[in-house]
Design a protein that fits this description.
The protein is of the alpha+beta class. It has one domain: Clavaminate synthase-like (Double-stranded beta-helix). It has 8 helices and 16 strands. Strands 1-2-3-13-5-15-4 form a 7-stranded mixed sheet, covered by helices on one side. Strands 11-7-8-16 form a 4-stranded antiparallel sheet. It has a 3-stranded antiparallel sheet with strand order 12-6-14. Strand 1 and strand 2 form a beta hairpin. The longest helix has 15 residues.
């Protein structure tokens, strides 16, 4: 069902309310273009305003930052996220978050077996968990998440890494002529854009997606409000076509851009350990889940919260266009006494 597009809104999820001098944190870059580890912070405790500003500054510079040896539970992870902005509900197609923690999205292929049965769980694991390709979280939404915080709970002894890419660097790596061309384009994003249903797939999960359609036209190049930078905003999982072009033209341009965002020069690969935390700017990065666990009988459980984002705009300030569905909503602040930590 097509709905009337609501008025544009903004959600300064990674912008401080008032200027605060960033703390001098122990930030250790991992590559030249993206990724840094931050040492010396205990994320289970409230951060000072200066420390929050320091983490934000590191995000602006390195796009994704990592922390090791943390001791977060669901409540502490939610409290951490709320220091940086409003949180969303877990996921538009997840109706089974942990009890009393509707902000938490759990990344665990085995969890699908509880909802859809063992056979469906196998199909979902294969399609939606580890081989879902490069993507930016929930771009079919009109106001995709501004940032995500993912913590590792259970990780395999080896394997299961996550790779991130810098979408600002990918844009800047294009020739000036191509930059000017793609700045004027719009792309359609929806669930299942490049992953058609497979025979014998998990009907319950596919029906849930079909009954809660999200379709949005986003600029191919979005402007980042805090920095004025330009970032490519396409990804192979959710971006299905370039609006206004014929299918052959659209596919060739998307293939060029998909290849660009996957260039190794723009990426960093993170090796998880229990207690590891990744915090990424969802507007300037895409990421790739593990590519080496499909046939491995191992457990891997991570938990994510997402910060609500603003509506993307192109280089001329024109906002994305909602085609189907509804915007992300901020989750209300729940009374900690009403939560029961597992």
């Amino acid at each position: 069902m097509t709905i009337t597009e609501p008025a544009p809104t903004t959600a300064p999820a990674v912008t401080p309310d008032a200027p605060v001098e960033p703390a001098a944190l122990d930030v250790r870059p991992l590559t030249a273009k993206i990724g840094a580890e931050i040492h010396g912070l205990d994320l289970s405790q409230p951060l000072s305003p200066a420390e929050v500003a320091g983490v934000r500054a590191a995000l602006d510079r390195w796009r994704v930052v990592f922390f090791r040896g943390q001791t977060l539970d669901h409540a502490a992870q939610i409290a951490l996220g709320r220091q940086f902005g409003e949180l969303t509900y877990a996921h538009p197609h997840d109706d089974n978050p942990p009890d009393d923690f509707p902000e938490i999205y759990t990344v665990d292929p085995n969890r699908f077996g509880q909802q859809y049965g063992a056979e469906a769980a196998k199909a979902i694991r294969k399609r939606y968990s580890y081989t879902n390709g490069w993507h930016t979280d929930v771009t079919p939404a009109w106001n995709p998440p501004a940032a995500s915080i993912l913590r590792a709970d259970v990780v395999p002894e080896y394997g299961g890494d996550t790779t991130f890419t810098n979408l600002v660097a990918a844009y800047e790596g294009l020739s000036p002529e191509v930059q000017r061309f793609v700045e004027g384009l719009w792309a359609e994003h929806w669930y299942g854009a490049n992953t058609p249903p497979r025979p014998g797939g998990p009907d319950g999960y596919l029906a849930k997606i079909a009954n809660n359609r999200l379709v949005t036209h986003h600029p191919v190049v979005r402007l980042i409000p805090e920095t004025g930078e330009k970032a490519l905003f396409v990804n192979p999982v959710f971006t299905g076509r370039i609006v206004g072009l014929n299918p052959s033209e659209s596919r060739r341009i998307l293939d060029l851009l998909f290849e660009q965002i996957q260039r190794p020069a723009f990426t960093v690969r993170f090796r998880w350990d229990a207690g590891g935390v990744a915090f990424w700017d969802n507007r300037t990065t895409a990421h790739l889940g593990p590519q080496d666990l499909d046939d491995e009988d191992v457990d891997r459980v991570l938990h994510r919260v997402t910060l609500i984002g603003e509506v993307p705009v192109n280089v001329h300030g024109e906002p994305s266009k909602l085609i189907e569905g509804k915007p992300f909503e901020a989750a209300p602040i729940f009374d900690p006494s009403e939560r029961s930590e597992p």
